[in-house]
């Protein structure tokens, strides 16, 4: 009964065509078709509007408007209220562990005055024309969508108030929404949201300029950290549905063997023994895609069976001959030497401020160091997988997709279908970290279903597939030289970066692009008169993808370790020296930094999210204060510091390490100071930074995928290890800088990772006197002599 | 020949190869998807279940080994989430993506069934086989302590 009335109430609003109709009659503004600012009638940022108990918010532009399909601000798309008072909010971003499926609806619920215990969340399918951008990466969800969530929540609250006023025949000024009900201010009458739902939702949505937001003092959930994960109970009882948990009637299970070398092809295969395994239904070759393959399948041979075990057994029995192609010589040791050679030469200049050559020549002392990081695989606990049904000219897919609309577009392209005939349902993601931004696994599932005549097929990668055929984090050599004058001042800084680029996954490319260059290279905030950044060319031999924090990881590692090296060489305290390099509190002018081309500012407007060295300094001070920087440490113990701005957020970490006699590094504590602007859900922010410390420690000591003869040498957790409970950062203390709502919220999912490895490496130097210039750290070198 | 055993208090009988890992029998044949695949080689703990009350890794236990025995999966620990370990997990907000958590919870529950109040080192050792890529170890550790002591 309840479900029926819910459906009938919701149905007219649920379709894109309904939204277009409402939009046409001017009832609301769909910002995906008009600039958000234009809609607001605002030329600049930070506009203050009417004062009063309820006032229009201070608003600011974000990169959310310029993302594909932008922002949709339409409460009739995102909110439904059923007569029993249940408020259903649509989550349109993917949940991979950041809590976004809870936090964005929480913002909307707070603003509309909903009681969280009566909120239901449903997950949007991949449909950007309806919901706006859904590409869940780049630590963008909260900073791009908090304003639209508030506007939609406030619009619904105002519609409920109006409905109550009309019902009671009083001016709307005489009523107000409280928690899940509207009351008459003199206290005579009250009506629950459920009672008012039908009348309220039949009203026109107020124009954005007329929407009154709550004052910050009235927030009940926003900024409080008092809302538990929506999926908590499902997770702890095993009922949460991830991609691999999708079960359809008659579904078959598939695994595949893919080319061991990127760009390789199946020359021939013998499926007889595989087909003889009980339960194996079919052996099917998946067509490959020539390099650069983007998100299209690598190709290979799939075994489809009635259960996963049969498919795995069948796969064991496949005999495949490969044609490896030109990447068969890829060798990580050789490649590293090549990168190093290139970094020793002048590269393409990407930032040129002052005259570095001259300054280096005039310097009293020149110090140089080179830092290396190998490839990494994301190793999401839930392996890549998807389930698809392709029949009668339609495709329906269920996938743990970070960017479900991109998957939908790729499916349509691969299958030759109209995008309207493709549906992508989004499950929970058992980790994403950038791997699940790419929908190759979904296309494999769809191809198999199509070949099988429309049988539902679930394609699952094994862990070995995941490690051997990843979209790898780049490998890099970062070489930095500093010139120091007779007063011990750094007067020149030359940073050369050599790393295969993400672009190469999409088109032949040997140079990094603005997004990579903007992650800790050309945006270097140091107050040094002469700075030059160069990028040397190198060709990729594997698929390069984005991994949580992306190029910020090797950059923060190199820059922050190098600063510690300089401080030591000059006999200075690391923290004091770092603050001196950062210089006085100021907003950097990116047009005066010698950057060739435009600074990529994480896709967001620089005037809203500038590089503010005052905030950078403040997190250094905060982390050091909380960690007790400067305190005396026992032998073979030390503190290490690093700071890095990424995803528009400022983060400093101080790691405390103990290096045991056998070289084992233990981390009793990490203090991380975070300035991410207004902290919307501090409890989940703390969780993200606690987890980032663990991932940072993992890449510090374990993560390397190396190649010989074009083939990955690692395959599973026995040789691609993770930090475990036996040795993890025992206490990660996250110190969040408080801000009012008007300091725009910035990224949270990624910025915690980059400072961890350099903080640990610097702490190891403090403890042992051993310099770390290579990840992962070989702890054998740290053994006590 | 069918293999009979007990899952979450109910008898089941499966016509399946005796060497099939219990993981796939649970997930694909019995639709009990709370037990997760993570590595298939007993290296990550995502598939932790209880066999006669002891924590085992379902990806490396063969179906024939559970014949006549009692298997408990996350679905059977407490379907309402009221086991002390589940309650502690919720109270401390342990999960991020949540995928490894059924395995973590089953491992922790087995530990506490054996030792009412384990030391920190005992918790570390017991949980060493369970990887959490999101990095929730600090809260997992604290939640086990909370479940053990109520503090």
Textual characterization of the structure:
With 785 residues, chain A is of the alpha+beta class. Chain A folds into three domains: 235 residues, Aldehyde oxidase/xanthine dehydrogenase, molybdopterin binding domain (Aldehyde Oxidoreductase, domain 4), CATH 3.30.365; 157 residues, Aldehyde Oxidoreductase, domain 4, CATH 3.30.365.10; 357 residues, Aldehyde oxidase/xanthine dehydrogenase, molybdopterin binding domain (Aldehyde Oxidoreductase, domain 4, 2-Layer Sandwich), CATH 3.30.365.10. In chain A, 29% of the residues lie in helices and 20% in strands. Chain A is built from 22 helices and 26 strands. In chain A, α21 packs across α22. Chain A starts with a helix and ends in a 17-residue tail after the last helix. Chain B has 151 residues and is of the alpha+beta class. Chain B has two domains: 75 residues, Roll (Ubiquitin-like (UB roll)); 66 residues, Orthogonal Bundle (DNA polymerase, domain 1), CATH 1.10.150. Chain B has six helices and five strands. Chain B has a five-stranded mixed beta sheet, sandwiched between helices. The longest helix of chain B has 14 residues. Chain B starts with a strand and ends with a helix.
């Amino acid at each position: 009964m309840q479900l029926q009335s819910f459906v009938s109430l919701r149905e007219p609003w649920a379709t894109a065509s309904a939204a277009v109709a409402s939009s046409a009659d001017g009832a609301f503004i769909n910002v995906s078709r008009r600039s958000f600012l234009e809609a607001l009638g605002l030329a600049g940022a930070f506009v203050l509007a009417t004062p009063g108990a309820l006032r229009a918010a201070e608003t600011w532009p974000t990169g959310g408007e310029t993302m594909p399909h932008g922002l949709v601000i339409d409460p009739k798309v995102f909110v439904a209220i059923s007569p029993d008072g249940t408020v259903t909010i649509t989550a349109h971003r993917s949940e991979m562990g950041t809590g976004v499926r809870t936090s964005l609806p929480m913002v909307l619920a707070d603003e509309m005055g909903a009681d969280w215990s009566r909120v239901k969340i449903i997950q949007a399918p991949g449909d950007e024309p309806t919901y706006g951008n859904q590409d869940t990466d780049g630590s963008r969800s909260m900073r791009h969508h908090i304003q639209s969530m508030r506007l939609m929540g406030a619009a619904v609250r105002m519609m409920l108030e109006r409905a109550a006023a009309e019902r009671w025949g009083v001016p709307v000024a005489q009523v107000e929404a409280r928690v899940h009900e509207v009351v008459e201010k003199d206290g005579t009458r009250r009506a629950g949201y459920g009672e008012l739902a039908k009348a309220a939702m039949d009203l026109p949505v107020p124009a954005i300029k007329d929407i009154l937001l709550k004052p910050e003092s009235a927030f009940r959930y926003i900024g409080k950290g008092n809302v538990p994960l929506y999926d908590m109970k499902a997770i702890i009882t095993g009922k949460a549905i991830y991609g691999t948990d999708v079960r359809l009637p008659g579904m078959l299970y598939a695994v595949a063997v893919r080319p061991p070398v990127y760009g390789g092809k199946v020359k021939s295969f013998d499926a007889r023994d595989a087909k003889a395994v009980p339960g194996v239904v079919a052996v099917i070759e998946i067509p490959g895609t020539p390099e650069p393959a983007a998100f299209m399948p690598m190709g290979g041979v799939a075994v489809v069976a009635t259960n996963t075990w049969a498919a795995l057994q069948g796969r064991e029995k496949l005999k495949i001959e490969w044609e490896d192609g030109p990447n068969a010589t890829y060798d990580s040791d050789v490649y590293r030497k090549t990168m190093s050679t290139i970094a020793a030469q002048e590269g393409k200049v990407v930032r040129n401020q002052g005259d570095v050559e001259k300054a280096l020549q005039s310097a009293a002392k020149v110090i140089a160091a080179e830092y290396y990081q190998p490839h990494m695989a994301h190793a999401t606990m839930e392996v890549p997988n998807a389930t698809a049904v392709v029949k009668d000219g339609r495709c329906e897919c269920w996938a743990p997709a970070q960017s479900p609309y991109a998957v939908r577009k790729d499916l349509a392209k691969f299958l030759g279908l109209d995008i309207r005939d493709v549906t992508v349902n989004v499950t929970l993601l058992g980790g994403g970290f950038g791997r699940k931004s790419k929908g190759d696994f979904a296309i494999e599932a769809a191809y198999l279903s199509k070949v099988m005549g429309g049988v539902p097929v679930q394609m699952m990668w094994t862990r070995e597939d995941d490690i051997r055929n990843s979209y790898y984090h780049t490998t890099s050599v970062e070489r930095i030289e500093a010139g120091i004058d007779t007063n011990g001042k750094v007067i020149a800084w030359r940073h050369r970066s050599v790393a295969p680029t993400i672009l190469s996954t999409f088109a032949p490319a040997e140079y990094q692009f603005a997004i990579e260059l903007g992650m800790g290279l050309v945006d270097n905030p140091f107050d040094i008169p002469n700075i030059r950044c160069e990028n040397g060319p190198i060709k990729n031999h594997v698929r390069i993808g984005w991994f949580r924090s992306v190029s910020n990881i090797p950059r923060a590692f190199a820059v922050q370790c190098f600063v510690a090296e300089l401080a030591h060489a000059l006999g200075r305290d690391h923290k004091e020296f770092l603050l001196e390099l950062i210089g006085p509190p100021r907003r950097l002018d990116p047009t005066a930094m010698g950057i060739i081309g435009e600074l990529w500012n994480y896709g967001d407007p620089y005037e809203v999210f500038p590089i503010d060295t005052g905030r950078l300094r403040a997190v250094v001070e905060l982390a050091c204060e909380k960690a007790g920087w400067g305190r005396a440490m026992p032998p073979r113990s030390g503190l290490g510091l690093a700071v890095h701005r990424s995803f528009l957020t400022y983060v400093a970490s101080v790691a405390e390490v103990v290096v045991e006699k056998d070289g084992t590094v233990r981390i009793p504590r990490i203090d991380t100071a975070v300035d991410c602007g207004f902290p919307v859900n501090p409890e989940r922010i703390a969780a993200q930074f606690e987890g980032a410390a663990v991932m940072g420690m993992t890449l510090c000591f374990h993560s390397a995928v190396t190649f010989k003869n074009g083939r990955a040498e690692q395959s599973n957790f026995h040789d691609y290890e993770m930090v475990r409970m036996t040795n993890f950062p025992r206490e990660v203390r996250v110190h969040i800088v408080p801000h009012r709502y008007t300091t725009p919220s910035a990224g949270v999912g990624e910025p915690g990772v980059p400072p961890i490895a350099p903080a640990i490496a610097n702490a190891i130097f403090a403890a042992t006197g051993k310099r770390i210039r290579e990840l992962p750290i070989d702890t054998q070198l740290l053994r006590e002599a | 020949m069918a293999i009979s055993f007990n899952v979450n208090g109910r008898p089941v009988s499966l016509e399946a190869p005796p060497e099939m890992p219990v993981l796939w029998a649970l997930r694909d044949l019995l639709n009990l998807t709370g037990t997760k695949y993570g590595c298939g080689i007993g290296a990550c703990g995502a598939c932790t279940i209880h066999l006669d009350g002891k924590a085992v890794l379902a990806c490396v236990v063969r179906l024939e080994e559970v014949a006549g025995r009692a298997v408990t999966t996350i679905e059977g620990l407490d379907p309402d989430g009221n086991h002390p370990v589940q309650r502690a997990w919720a109270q401390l907000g342990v999960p991020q993506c949540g995928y490894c958590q059924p395995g973590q919870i089953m491992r922790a529950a087995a530990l506490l069934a054996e030792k009412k109040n384990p030391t920190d080192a005992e918790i570390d050792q017991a949980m060493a086989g369970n990887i959490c890529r999101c990095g929730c170890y600090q809260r997992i550790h604290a939640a086990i302590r909370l479940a053990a002591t109520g503090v």
